[in-house]
Amino acid sequence: MNATLSPYMGAPVDVVTGARGAVVNASFAKHAEQFGRKAHQVAEGVWCHVGACLGNSTMIEGKTGVIVVDTGDCIEQSVMQKEDLMAVCNKPLSALVYTHGHYVFGSRTWLPLEQEGKVPVWAHPDMMRNMSRMIGDLSPFMMRRVAIQFGLHLPVDGPDSMPHMGLGPFFYEMDKYKPTTGFVRPTHTTTDGMATEIDGVKFEFFHTWGDTDDTVLIWLPETRTVINNIAWPAMFNIYTLRGELFRNPIELLRGLDKILELQPEHLIGVHGVPISGREEVAKAITEYRDTIQYIYDQTIRGINAGLSPDELAQTIRLPASLTNGRLTGEHYGELPFHVRQVYAGMVGWFGKDTAKLHPVTGTDEAHRIVALAGGEDAFLMASRAAADKREFAWVAQMATWGMQNAGPRLAEFRQLKADALRGMAQVTTAANTRSWYLTQARELEGHCNTDVTPFKIINPAMVKQMPPITYVNGLRFSLPASLSADGIKVLHLHFSQPDNDYTLVLRNGVVVISNGAPAAGTQVDATIDMSFDAWARLIGREASGRDLQASGDVKASGNKAIVGAVLGTA
């Protein structure tokens, strides 16, 4: 496909102004119509709540109470869900079920602390492992990029606002509440193909990949209803710009084929409005799974033909029968992103051009390109000429070189790039693309700072719900390599209530963690002793290490540099 036909390179696009002033692609604006706040009755005794946040919550009426599936991204959202769901069936909670580890942070709304342990909480056996990765090792990275992806640095109103998030109306409504998380850990785990009864309702659980490998597909045979985390109201996000583990399309197909095998009358998704009618569900799922297979098969075909990721991203396009599918629009991510991810997931990042193995640095490249163009003034003039033709993608690239060249016209190149990114954001059909482009544009203009995350998921209550090793493991990434520059060091970290001991060996710039206290005779360079509650307050940023030491909640001795690095007092 000729790049000039792209909306990012000047192709005509129907752009409209939304109700809150957002300047957007018309098809993207229309996609928002399904996300109104409502508890949809799907079948007898089954309701799906849409519109309080990115992820839906489903409620099933049991004999004595209600079973709730997924609870939003924070307590404030789950309060809205609960309010609307209780209006249609006001019974006490009899069980919680998690489809995967993403929409679980409002569960404390349904299950207060004093009720914990009295109500079963069902989940995939790998969910806690995945959560430990998301909110442990990669927490700073993930939270920073989640904020960008979901437009949390963008204004609520005006041209740069977000009409919706592609899969739901919003991630957080930062203008209405400060999100607080309340997670309740699972008490029961599912097995693949497991059949059970929860409060008089028959459930069957299947382990099927979605955007995580801890996803549970739920089958309610009595109402012939499927609850799933694979079929979304937009093309499945094989790759998300925030960064995630490889979502293998082959695994995704198995779950969608299971849905077709079950022949449901009703389809409930973690995102989007429910679909009812056996034929309607089958058609939507068939289009959806064929889209995923098409992306995978055509990418593999191109790899075998010797094409590079760039060549494949520029040439693979869906056939019309899939482009116009009920759930296959590019309203969340975009097809080229997914093609590149399949390529990388299957064979790695290298295409075929060996010039990319050791490219010149970005700054060196910029100096050389600007010089070839005849100098900075000539290069700026050419960039502005491209901007007049709405060749946004080319202008953004040229402006990047202009910025890296770092000449006297730097400020003009910064604004030129911001304008080009904003232009691409206004013509895209995809929420992720819009959020990233607009956020970077506004950051270039000095309107936001993405190094500062405007929300936090980690709080003391969250820390207490996770295995103690979750945040101890985080010390591998936070302790500076210089601590072991002059030789091996040993730290003994002890928690009380509950009792847990960890030995941290600092050597060669790495931190090796093992369970248990140091072996007898080991030279211990530092010791830190605290209750697990104090650790939770420290990690959840409710109290500083200095304050905890002053109050006696933390006792530390030995190497001051190590102690200071762990407690944040260095």
Automatic annotation (TrEMBL):
InterPro entries: Alkyl/aryl-sulf_dimr_sf, Alkyl_sulf_C, Alkyl_sulf_dimr, Bact_Alkyl/Aryl-Sulfatase, Bds1/SdsA1_MBL-fold, Metallo-B-lactamas, RibonucZ/Hydroxyglut_hydro, SCP2_sterol-bd_dom_sf. Residues 54-271 form the Metallo-beta-lactamase domain. Keywords: Hydrolase, Metal-binding, Zinc. Belongs to the metallo-beta-lactamase superfamily. Type III sulfatase family. This is Alkyl sulfatase dimerization domain-containing protein. It comes from Variovorax rhizosphaerae.
